[in-house]
Design goal:
2 strands, two-stranded antiparallel ribbon, 434 Repressor (Amino-terminal Domain), 7 helices, alpha+beta, about 90 residues
Length: about 90
């Protein structure tokens, strides 16, 4: 298809996406309450991102989390892609 890839290729190659907020907070010994206070987000929002119960991602929420946790790379710092078989190596 030239320089563009088809979305169906993505659906075949990526099994899922893990949001790594829980891991980051545990590694840094930061509580959800501390993150809530620093980001000024609701407990419900923090819990959704912490437990990965996300259907859609709010960019404002991501930027608040990135800022207070001093993260640089929105994709690699916060997300882990789960690839089907060896799909990652084929790209």
């Amino acid at each position: 298809m030239g320089i563009l890839r088809k979305i169906s290729d993505l659906e075949k190659n990526i099994k899922g996406v893990k949001f790594k907020l829980k891991d980051i907070l545990n590694e840094r010994n930061i509580s959800k309450g501390e993150l809530r206070q620093a980001t000024e987000l609701s407990s419900a929002t923090i819990n959704r991102y912490y437990h990965g119960g996300l259907e859609r991602i709010d960019i404002t929420v991501l930027f608040r989390i990135l800022y207070v946790l001093e993260l640089d790379d929105i994709i690699n710092d916060l997300f882990e892609f789960e690839y089907a078989d060896d799909a990652k190596n084929k790209e």
